[in-house]
Amino acid sequence: MASTLRDKNQKSAVSKSDAVYRTLKRAILDQALAAGTKLPEDSIGERLGVSRTIVRQALARLNGEGLIELRPHKGACVAQPSLEDARHIFAVRQALETLVVDTLIGTLTPQQIRQLEAHVDAEDAARTNNTSASIQLAGEFHVLLAKLTENDVLLRYVTELVSRSSLILSLYGRPHSPDCAVSEHRELIAALDKGEREQACSLMRHHIDAITTRALLKGNSEKDFPDLLAAYAREEGL
Amino acid sequence: MASTLRDKNQKSAVSKSDAVYRTLKRAILDQALAAGTKLPEDSIGERLGVSRTIVRQALARLNGEGLIELRPHKGACVAQPSLEDARHIFAVRQALETLVVDTLIGTLTPQQIRQLEAHVDAEDAARTNNTSASIQLAGEFHVLLAKLTENDVLLRYVTELVSRSSLILSLYGRPHSPDCAVSEHRELIAALDKGEREQACSLMRHHIDAITTRALLKGNSEKDFPDLLAAYAREEGL
DNA sequence: TTTTGCTTGATTGTGTACAAAATGCTCGCA
DNA sequence: TGCGAGCATTTTGTACACAATCAAGCAAAA
User: Domains in chain B, ordered, with CATH?
Assistant: First the structure.
């Protein structure tokens, strides 16, 4: 009981660097730290009440997951995935999440189906506040699916890719419309429940396609800084 | 020119922890450090002439890639993937490497084809010394393919999975027979060259299947301690 | 004989101090 | 007024010292 409370307070962290890691990750995914924000070790450590050593470990981990960039001697900053990065990430997501569905077909218990439906209900409920919470929940649905496969590697990769996708959506994506995500998730659950392999895989493929389109559509409008500059430079003959 | 030389000497490492990371990784994949070997931070640091701080960073990274296990307060040791881990890893490999082939179809230049063939020639040449060098080269073929996709994420994951596969093969695999790997690689290149998508994907799928079989076949002979015990336990009605 | 508690040794977790590197700025010069 | 060299500041890279934690071995009691 006491340990349960402690776990809740400390978020089941055994080490401080874990806590810092999670704090930073949440901050990034909640867009509290916008893409490109510099992340000096000193300031973060001071702010969070830990030494630079701890912050450094957390940053190294985030770097490994592609959420921040860690340029030598130049400091860390929140990653700004290029459109190409985005395409790469979604391509891999499609392959992996198709594997998730393929693995899950015929193995889901009624209880697990209910768990999935409960999650989508939560997504549905969060539709009103059109903020990052909605993106977050939509992403967690995919993570939940991956978790059900009980394949650790698959879970790790999907989790990582979903995180990076959130970052991409916040950078390039047009305003998130949760309606279609919810309905697509429901269709997918139905297909999984009925054991329709081809149908389920196909649904997942198209679902990721839809996300990819939503993510990359706005890409050539305003935020793509380098390319924009390149265009100007060309006009000036540089 | 000078920088090229420096890169060669320092293996393009900017930081020491990178060097230690690569050193340990090579040692593990070469089986100089057998699975399960303990990796105390200060022994390694002393041996390699760096402080524990550096070693710690390298270990954290290897842990992230699943090559070592990092139990809190109990020290690091070379990972001993279970048979289940192995199945998970190969399942994800199959999905990702099929994506590799699918991406590569119709994009490979004659020069790249020659590059692939040159690599397989090297594998062929290394057939005689039936050691880990052969496994290593066979793995690098897959990494090379992933590199040609120019998809960074895909490359990172495939690299990681190939590394872990090497570890698995050294743990459970029956003696590596390079002949079939070489011929399968050659068939794959031919299909890629001719742009036969279905054929190439199918070849890759079966190739990974073959590796999986080779990897897991010996699993119930001697080294699989836990399952072995479980079998005994069942016989005793426990 | 088995189990429990303690002690000891080893190993990791964390903080801090110093060194190295890069960036930005000031000052001198053309 | 524009430009470059050198300095100062900031930030990271590394090492080391100390604290916390755990595993093993030993001893004592049931």
Answer: 14-78 (1.10.10.10), 83-220 (1.20.120.530)
